[in-house]
Design brief:
The protein has 381 residues and is mainly alpha-helical. It has 3 domains: 79 residues, no CATH class; 92 residues, no CATH class; 175 residues, Orthogonal Bundle (hpI Integrase, Chain A), CATH 1.10.443.10. The chain contains 14 helices and 6 strands. The protein has a 3-stranded antiparallel β-sheet with strand order 1-2-3. A hairpin with an 8-residue loop joins strand 2 and strand 3. Helix 7 runs parallel beside helix 11.
């Protein structure tokens, strides 16, 4: 059977392929922004993309789906089946249909698959067609607490399960949605900020033990990015001459952005590129990045700092200074409703840069003590 064909549609890479039992082809968005143009007559043209690994992973997933379809467990067929597919196959079908309706972020796809795998860890025989009672959900909650899952992780997994069952019901894999009437309470968002002294300790440890990840996390902390945004940054998107990030993809918002590099972060880049070389692209493994971060917290005997806590602390610093509403929105990487903030104009960029520098004088003092200045042997231990 032919491998899926890669093409571009609406600015994204798409795949076209056939599955057993269907005469027509299926088209599916990869959710990956196209960064090169189509080359006619060369089926491997997409391999020149910097996102080739993600495209290849999507192709391999389709190949797996087609093999499953040969044994009655198709995760891509849209026809109802009397045979109930496995949980992972149902989630794959859900992701495929969601992608066909519009771009689906890699983060959402991974989260759903991780939720399915976690549910199968709890019960490896779990069927999407079973009756999900309140007692069953209560047992699942007790298991998640025993595994020391955070409240947000528990809530997300239950919401994903609810989505899986709703989708399975729409496909007639089950007769009744037994979770339809259950309500799961969303945890309160934490507004607590990690003490700056603990952040400084952690970044000092990262600088001396893992400079590659130091660069990734200091970029997230001082530019307010999500870690999912940081790991997509390429060296070509870093304009050190003008101290700008250019066309960095806002993964959640599905839009590229131009963003100023603050003086503190520019100091890090200017000096570390000579000592270590700025490692681009940044580490692509979110899970390993988390492991590095938690290893540092454990060694330093400080409480665990999740990556999103860096963004909370960043937002707290921005809130402490007076700035225009649309500048605040842009600094938070949010889409602003203000007419003045609908484009990253030169004036807006300089206002953003000024706000960042006003909010981060302590970081400038910190990195000047920590980062070895080019051509010297000094540096905070």
């Amino acid at each position: 059977m032919k491998r899926p064909r890669v093409f571009i549609k609406q600015g994204y890479f798409w795949l076209q392929y056939y599955v057993p039992g269907r005469e027509d082809h299926i088209r599916r968005s990869t959710g990956v922004v196209a960064d090169i143009t189509f080359t006619k007559g060369n089926p491997d043209w997409w391999k020149k993309s910097k996102h080739a690994a993600k495209i290849r992973a999507s192709i391999e997933q389709i190949e797996t789906d087609r093999r499953l379809s040969g044994i009655g467990m198709s995760s891509v067929t849209r026809k109802p089946s009397r045979k109930v597919p496995g949980l992972l196959a149902v989630v794959a079908e859900l992701n495929n249909e969601s992608s066909a309706e519009g771009p689906l972020s890699d983060q959402t796809i991974k989260r759903r698959v991780n939720s399915a795998n976690t549910l199968l860890r709890y019960d490896h025989r779990l069927s999407i067609a079973r009756e999900f009672t309140k007692e069953w959900v209560a047992d699942l909650r007790r298991w998640m607490k025993a595994q020391k899952f955070t409240e947000w992780t528990q809530y997300t997994l239950l919401q994903d399960l609810k989505l899986f069952v709703k989708f399975a019901t729409s496909k007639r894999y089950t007769d009744r949605n037994t979770l339809a009437d259950m309500r799961f309470t969303q945890p309160e968002s934490s507004t607590e900020h990690t003490p700056r002294s603990e952040e400084f300790k952690l970044f000092t440890w990262l600088y001396h033990h893992n400079p590659k990840y130091f660069l990734a996390f200091i970029t997230q902390r001082l530019a307010g990015y999500r870690i999912s945004d940081v790991i997509t940054i390429e060296r070509s998107q870093l304009d050190l001459k003008n101290n700008l990030f250019r066309n960095v993809l806002n993964v959640k918002g599905h839009r590229p952005e131009v963003f100023p590099i603050s003086d503190a972060l520019a100091y890090v880049y200017d000096n570390m590129q000579h000592e270590f070389g700025i490692a681009f692209p940044f580490p692509s493994s979110y899970r390993y990045a988390m492991d590095v971060l938690q290893e540092g917290c454990k060694k330093l005997e400080i409480r665990k700092i999740p990556t999103h806590q860096f963004k909370r602390n960043y937002s707290g610093e921005i809130e402490d200074i007076e700035t225009l509403t649309h500048i605040f929105d842009m600094l938070m990487h949010h889409k602003t409703k203000s007419v003045a903030g609908r484009s990253y104009t030169g004036k807006n960029i300089e206002l953003m840069r000024g706000a960042l520098n006003k909010a981060q004088p302590h970081w400038m003092a910190f990195v000047k003590k920590l980062v070895i200045k080019t051509g010297t042997k000094q540096g905070l231990k």
